[in-house]
Every structure is written in structure tokens, then in C-alpha cells.
UniProtKB/TrEMBL annotation:
It is an enzyme of class 1 (oxidoreductase). InterPro entries: Aldolase_TIM, DHO_dehydrogenase, Dihydroorotate_DH_1_2, Dihydroorotate_DH_2, Dihydroorotate_DH_cat, Dihydroorotate_DH_CS. PROSITE patterns: DHODEHASE_2. This is Dihydroorotate dehydrogenase (quinone). Monomer. The lineage of its organism: Bacteria, Pseudomonadati, Bacteroidota, Flavobacteriia, Flavobacteriales. Its main location: membrane.
Amino acid sequence: MYKLLIRPIFFWFDPEEIHHFTFSLIRTLSKIPGFPSMFRALYAVNDKRLEREVFGLKFKNPVGLAAGFDKDAKLYQELSDFGFGFIEIGTLTPKPQEGNPKKRLFRLREDSAIINRMGFNNGGVHAAVERLKKNKNVLIGGNIGKNKVTPNEDAVSDYEICFDALFDHVDYFVVNVSSPNTPNLRELQDKEPLTALLRALQIRNAKKQNPKPILLKIAPDLTDSQLLDIIDIVADTKIAGVIATNTTISRDGLQSANKTETGGLSGKPLTKRSTEVIRFLSEKSNKAFPIIGVGGIHTAEDAIEKLEAGASLVQLYTGFIYEGPQLVSDINKKILQTIS
């Protein structure tokens, strides 16, 4: 129904505008008695065999919603009814910011992809915290970044502000230094500044009564040498794991007219590369840390490939937009088939 009827209508409209409309629609429907139960009946797969314990947390299933979809923690409760095992909110920054000028979100239909150059548009971490206080048992990841106007030499402070504000309201943290849409942000992926940033957060984390898992989200555009550095950094800083991968700046093999737009590319063109990064990290580290696999998951088989490559959990974003919520159910059912 989604791909035959709903998606064609949605795709007639500007992608950013329809995103906000969809949020309003889901929120409205979720207030009508019976609709949340209907969503859960259609898309949630409840089976103990799907449960996963990863970096000390228990996930009811291994399929999550990636950061960027619910940036401001406005819809995580309603989105959980679509069968997700966890929801990652953000990227959040200390101060609210508008992000980059519109138009900044583009569909590449022929490639089943999206290019975005949103630029960490969000209402600020403190506004999100107020909404997270109303959470009813949704496992939440908090994806954190720095404000655009904050120079890289002061970036640690921005991440610490977000970390402190969110600490009591999320289950795990994700340090985002891999978005291509904030000027110079990816320079923080270099070994020295990244190690310093993660150490600072781990020092802060260790002072808490119950420390939270901290993960690092990396770009798919890293070389093998840089990926080996990531393995060393994880070992050195003792963070909980890695999310592989963010969007790519590559444009190889694209067919769509919008392929020349600047920004991060997500969707099917990323499927192979993100799986390669997962496999490389898993094999070269001897499975030393958990990996959340994200990038180009449009079918249940795509998700299984990432799990077999070494991912402990997977996340959806662009695949959720193109394939609809049935994809969540399909993946969980496929996982059950592989273990039955």
C-alpha cells in the first residue's frame, strides 16, 4: 500500500515539506484511539529471539531508526509503534540553529537515494530534553554535534554541553564528527582531535554514577588506513562501539539529475560501501567492539548482509522513506527465518 499509493503522492511534494507534513500526520493519527495499536499490529514483530544485548543495553529487536529523521525528539514515541527496537534522535547541538539555506534536501528517484545538506538544523539540546522527559519506555540514542559557529578547537565544549544535558534522558550517545554538511567538521575525524574529544567525553562519563555507552559515527569515505586508526582510537578511548556509516560525498554511478547537488548521499548507492566498512572494522579488530550498521538498507536481505558482515544492530533512514514501515517488519521476520 505504501509504495503503490502513499509514496507516489508524497513524492509529488518537496521532500523537506513532506517530511514535516508526515510528522504532523503520524502525530495526529497516533492520537486517535486504535491507531497506535493498529500500527503495532501491522509492523511490530514481538519475539524473544529478536532481543539483543549490546554494549550493556537490551534491545527488543535489532532494527533501529537512524539519527536525522527525528532530529528534535518530537516523534520518537509514535515512531516506536512502527516496530523499531530503538530510536536515535539528533544530531543535536548546544544552541538552536537553522541549518543550511533551503533547498537542502533532494530525492534521487532513479538511484533510490537522497542528498541532504541540512547542516544540523535543530532546536537545540535543551528543547529536546524537555520532550525526552515524557519518554515511555522507548530505547533512545542521543546523537550529538557542534554548532556551526563553534571553531573546531572549541568543539569539545559543545559535545560536553550536549552530553551533560542529555545524560539522564538517553540510553546511549553517538558522537557525530562525520557529517559532510557542517564546515570542517570531518577534520575532527583525524586521529589526534578525535582521540582528544572521545577521551574528554569518557572522563566526563566515568564521573557519572551509571556511565552510558558512547559510540562514534564514521564516514564511509575513510580509507583503510583511517579505518585502522578508528580501531586504534576505539581501543585507546574504550568507547562502546561504532556506527558505520554516515552519508557519503561520493557520486559514483549515479543516474539522477540531482546527482550534482552538494551534501551527503544516502540510500542504495551506499549499500555496498557501508557493508564493506562494517566487514573491515569487524575483521581487522577481531570483533573487538559492537558495530551498528547503517547505509543503504532497502530490503531485508540488505540488513542480513550487514549483520553477517559484523554488525550487531542495524538502522534505517532512506530505506524507511523509500520502502515504508513494512521494511522494519520484513527485516525482523527475515532475521527470525535465519535463526529458526
